[in-house]
């Protein structure tokens, strides 16, 4: 299986999608790997606890643009925290996952955000707060509003999901992808604007000449 | 995990527990999840029907496979598919249907069509004979192959049996004298017979900590008390104090992880025969070593021990194993120590597989990406269980350096594939190794790895790395410890 996935892909050909690194962060067994598995392979099954880090890739087709996610699925246990910190370096996006039936996992997600802010510059990464396991509605400990409020106060994207029932899983990744490509575009725009004075200063003279004729 | 392989090795792996295991395994409904059963059933059904038609046509009954083959060849020849109509109707209307394709070759054409010419009939006859001969040849070849595999297996079992006699009668009674002799070490490399595996592991790991079964009972009862008080108070404390929440989380996590330990074996899950044992050992350990506590990955180590040892012995081996310097460094997530192990590993990586080493370097792919999972679970999560046990065998013989040697062996085994991959694909590949990895191939690759860096051995390289790093960053803060 892994062999098939790992089909050699020598050097990126021109016109290949932009690659974005996305890290999954959150407490143990909140469903990080399940979200990844559901999204990448549309599968849900009992998953072995992640030790260290697991990896997935997925190409996202946004219609206008196409991008590729490199998903870093980190170990959730607190003890691995120091190791996981290494893995969010260079990340373009992060999903802070918590389990809506466990308040402590919601608190942990907030802590992860702090760590993330220490390591990466704000605005550099697209961060989304994800409340997973909506299929366990009757055991809910964190309300939708709580999640939303926190996300809004920190300027994060927010969504609730169920990896088990395949509820809004793809939407989460697509929203992040859209945000990434939007930011990329605006960055491109900025760059053009920064370059603009040069072209502008030349253009009038050219135009002027044009008009003179 | 390759379910298929696991079943095959079940008998060899857990000799003591065969009875219990057998019942579990056989009744396990989940095996179907892994084996591709349904298509095969279908194939058998259709071929049976075809076979029937043959015998009724007074054609020598052939093996079903041959018929399928003939059909395929016929299809290829005529360029049209001869799909049998749905099975049920076929069975019912059997007598009214045109004769089978083979019959078309053998018999004249149906009466409403012009008759075959003599040459054509002859040619058909000849072609048919050729096909049959070919198919027969193929079948004989396959039978030979099967026989060879069986022979190999017998041979293997025989050598295991004879090795077992040697281990029981000669080596174990004189353990201290014989354990490091050349002969024993060689026999050890071949893999321990499952019936003495647990015993040898226990002896090799030792009991530096002097844990007795009584002590285990004490810690177990402490763990049980804690679970009780935890379940009584869990409703009261919510967000109070992180340490309480953490301890809770750890207890919760043990419960969760137990059900996620070797799920394909169906023995550690709730209601499975070893669920409670695994829970007990992990719980007792967190009471015995609160400084280490429960760390994900431990459940796999404990599970492998449980499969080979009695409960108390498994605990003793577990605690002592985790007390080895390398394991302690990893399970305490002592980051700076882990880095030293990785640095030592890289010295041997470069020495043994320089091309791949450079390839990894070019992507700044560091060993932690794959080694963390391998070392934390002692390969029991990443390799098929029977193969992991063989790695454990030699790990017990050679110590920590064998864990890293195994890692290099895996890299060597897949060197050609890995050289073609980029960062993410290498990471993906190594954290989820192919399931068809065989012990012969892996062990020959491991054997080819030299753990002697020009003049230095693993331990020497390790201590020099320790010294370098100590001098390099004296004012660095100590490792993040949880």
Automatic annotation (TrEMBL), chain A:
One of its GO terms (cellular component) is recycling endosome membrane. Keywords: Cell projection, Endosome, GTP-binding, Hydrolase, Lipoprotein, Magnesium, Membrane, Metal-binding, Nucleotide-binding, Phosphoprotein, Prenylation, Protein transport, Transport. It holds the Pfam family Ras. InterPro entries: P-loop_NTPase, Rab_GTPases_membrane_traffic, Small_GTP-bd, Small_GTPase. The keyword Hydrolase applies. Signal peptide: none annotated. It catalyses: GTP + H2O = GDP + phosphate + H(+). It is a lipid-anchor. Its main location: other. One of its GO terms (molecular function) is GTP binding. The keyword Ligase does not apply. It is found in: Cell projection, Dendrite; Melanosome; Recycling endosome membrane. GO terms for biological process: plasma membrane bounded cell projection assembly; protein transport. It is an enzyme of class 3 (hydrolase). Belongs to the small GTPase superfamily. Rab family. This is Ras-related protein Rab-17. It comes from Bos indicus x Bos taurus.
From TrEMBL, chain B:
This is TBC1 domain family member 12 isoform X6. Residues 118-153 form a coiled coil. InterPro entries: Rab-GAP-TBC_dom, Rab-GAP_TBC_sf, Rab_GAP_TBC_domain. The gene is TBC1D12. Keywords: Coiled coil. Transmembrane segments: none annotated. Residues 191-399 form the Rab-GAP TBC domain. The lineage of its organism: Eukaryota, Metazoa, Chordata, Craniata, Vertebrata. It comes from Bos indicus (Zebu).
